[in-house]
Design a protein that fits this description.
With 212 residues, the chain is an alpha/beta fold. The strands form 2 sheets. A 10-stranded mixed sheet has the order 4-3-2-1-5-6-7-14-9-12, sandwiched between helices. A 4-stranded antiparallel sheet has the order 8-13-10-11, with no helix packed on it.
């Protein structure tokens, strides 16, 4: 089951959201993420957060719709995104699209990227997506599809990603170990074919599809 979770980071152009929303089974809003669903004219299935970043007007609008709301104190251990993820897992989601999780606050963006590790260890697929990026963490070989010329970066999260082989890229790698602390040779690679493979034998690897 696929869940789309809206957090509060700025989204300037909502066009990219369409493909993810069309295939979603459940829609969850975290606090300021309600501004996004309001702009899109959407009704979330659930709302969570401490509501310190959503306007009272927008919150009242959704309260009047009778949507289930889980409110938490502002002084809490979890971020609003974590609360949304926990609810999605509670409802049985196995595929998460995290929107509004990449923004001007680097601390929040980095924390959200690190949340992908815990989800991956639970067997949950999760992607952080905005207008310019799709960030996924993998621990096994994958095949990706796209257009020739698309930018793809493969960046280690573990101290070492072993035996990485990139096929179908303008800059291929063959059985290369990538170290977290000094080797960024696979940043800003380019698809040379519409189908490309990323093989490796050990480690955690960010696969980031980006555009300027």
């Amino acid at each position: 089951m696929k869940a789309v979770i809206f957090a509060g980071a700025k989204i300037s152009n909502y066009a990219f959201c369409k493909e993810y929303l069309e295939s979603a089974h459940v829609l969850i809003c975290c606090d300021g993420g309600l501004h996004h669903t309001k702009a899109l004219g959407l009704m979330p299935d659930y709302i969570v957060g401490d509501f310190d970043s959503v306007s009272q007007e927008v919150l009242d609008y959704y309260k009047e719709k009778g949507i289930p709301i889980r409110q938490f104190p502002a002084r809490k251990d979890e971020t609003d995104m974590q609360l949304g993820i926990a609810l999605a897992l509670e409802k049985g989601a196995t595929d998460l699209i995290l929107l509004g999780g990449l923004g001007s606050r680097f601390d929040h963006s980095l924390a959200n990227a690190h949340l992908l590790l815990g989800l991956l260890k639970k067997g949950i697929r999760a992607r952080l997506v905005d207008e310019n990026n799709c960030v996924e963490l993998v621990n096994r070989p994958i095949t990706i599809h796209g257009k020739i010329g698309d930018l793809v970066s493969t960046i280690p999260l573990s101290m070492m990603v072993k035996g990485i082989t990139l096929t179908g890229f303008e800059y291929p790698l063959i059985n290369r170990d990538l170290a977290l602390d000094d080797d960024m040779v696979a940043v800003s690679n380019v698809l040379a074919k519409e189908e490309a493979t990323i093989d490796f034998t050990e480690g955690y690897l960010y696969v980031i599809r980006s555009k300027d």
